[in-house]
Design goal:
Layout: E1 10-14, H1 18-30, E2 34-38, H2 41-50, E3 55-59, H3 67-76, E4 82-87, H4 92-100, E5 105-108, H5 113-127, E6 134-137, E7 140-143, E8 148-151, E9 154-156, H6 160-171, H7 179-186, H8 197-209, E10 215-218, E11 222-225
Parallel strand pairs: 1-2, 1-3, 3-4, 4-5
Antiparallel strand pairs: 6-7, 7-8, 8-9, 10-11
Helix pairs in contact: 2-3, 6-8
């Protein structure tokens, strides 16, 4: 379905039209992003206060706290999330108002989903330090543009979660990444902190990458890529 960013992004979609919200969330999850949902401004503010997001896809006309107020509060509280504001009001005056409130980008409804993804990806690149389009470690190459992984030239087909875990480990540059951090960044707010999802995904990922073992486990600490980076 197109390119996904190697930086595994956490996105909060704030949209009161539940069918549209699910459509956006499912599409972004297909791009290996972690997505949480809020259907009103008050819930959005609660989630922003308790979670760390890279991108907020924010409908402007919301029940509870208006989208303008959500944007204003996010900026005032020093939030680092980039804001893509959605609205049915697409004239120049509305765009200017949204941008002056602190929104980073603006997309009028109805919109093309591929354009929304492109804008989310662009904001994601601005929200974090840039990484090379292809990450390499040993014989493993992870191409963010094509969303492809190879090992010693052999294609490795991964699920979204497996891709996200491998991207997080390779982006860490050999540093240890805890299971808690992987749950937070690769899954979403509904992930059970006591789940064995990380362990199961890691087992499948190792199996697909083959021998020698590409990922080390440090008991009680976390995981890291084995050996030296390319």
């Amino acid at each position: 379905m197109g390119a996904a960013s190697v930086k595994h992004m956490r996105v909060l979609v704030v949209e009161d039209e539940k069918t549209l919200a699910r459509y956006i969330a499912e599409g972004l999850r297909d791009r290996a992003m972690s997505v949480d949902l809020a259907h009103d401004g008050t819930t959005a503010l609660d989630k922003l206060g308790s979670g760390e997001y890279d991108i907020v896809v924010l409908d402007r006309d919301l029940p509870g706290a208006h989208g303008d107020e959500v944007c204003r509060r996010l900026i005032a509280d020093g939030g680092r999330a980039r804001v893509l504001m959605l609205t049915a009001m697409a004239d120049v005056g509305d765009r200017v108002t949204g941008l002056r409130l602190g929104a980073d980008d603006y997309l009028g409804k109805p919109f093309d989903f591929e354009e929304l993804v492109a804008r989310v990806d662009a904001l994601g690149r601005r929200s974090r330090p840039a990484l090379p389009p292809v990450l390499r470690h040993g014989g493993i190459a992870l191409d963010s543009g094509l969303r492809e992984v190879t090992r010693d030239g052999r294609p490795v087909v991964l699920s979204n979660k497996e891709f996200g875990v491998l991207a997080a480990l390779m982006a860490a540059g050999g540093a240890v990444v805890s299971a808690e951090e992987l749950l937070r960044t690769v899954w979403d707010e509904n992930a059970d902190p006591f789940t064995n999802a990380v362990r199961i995904t890691m087992h499948r990922l190792r199996g697909k990458l083959g021998e020698p073992t590409a990922i080390e486990t440090l008991p009680g600490v976390g995981y890291r890529m084995a050996g030296r980076a390319a």
